[in-house]
Amino acid sequence: MPAKKEETAKEAKAEVKEEKKPKEAKAEAKEAKKATEEKEAKPKAEKKEEKPKEGSKEEKPKKEEKKGSTVASLKEQVAKGLVKTKEEKKEEAPEQSKPVQSRRNEFVAVAHVYSSKNNVIVNVTDLSGAETLASASGGMVVKSGREERTPFAGIQAAKRVAQAIKEKGVTTVDILIRGKGGHAGQKTPGRAASAVIKGFATSGLRIRRIEDVTPIPHGGCKPPGGKRGRRV
Predict the structure, then answer these.
(1) What CA–CA distance (Å, rounded) separates 37 from 58?
(2) Of the residues 5, 171, 227, 229, which has the fewest C-beta atoms closer than 10 A?
(3) Which 8-state DSSP code applies to residue 212?
């Protein structure tokens, strides 16, 4: 009996040892994996440490070298006389500005422009209006009668008058534009008026003032024709 008990105990111990063996093998495999992972991780960490970050201290010496090279090149240029220092610039005399023409000596004239549906007349006088300096009309510049009212006639008449008054010493012009006006007339100047202004401007005269002086009735005489108009 005791011999049988000893045999059963030995068999039980052998079974326990066999059960423990696979567990121990698993633990050993895990430890081996960890060791291999650690070995692979070490070289990666070393590579990351080797790479310098952007804007790090290692790049600063390069920038300093560039600055030093530019300073040296500037010094060479100053020595050769290609670049001037601040003191040399101050020593140089400033450029003389162009003399400004005083407007007290200007000869001012008045251009009376009459522009209607059929014609344009340009008459230039002195400031008092007593003396006529030059005059021109659409008929003097254009061949056919239908072209007397056109902007072309206006600009040609203005250029002709401008040339004549410039020879007399006129430099500045006040322009007074006038339409027919009145009770039955046109309340606005004709289309040649703007062309006359353009002609004076392109001829080199200084235009000081532009004014519309078309006579517009405000009350005054009763227009002819009665309440129902003129009966024909």
Answers:
(1) 32
(2) 227
(3) E
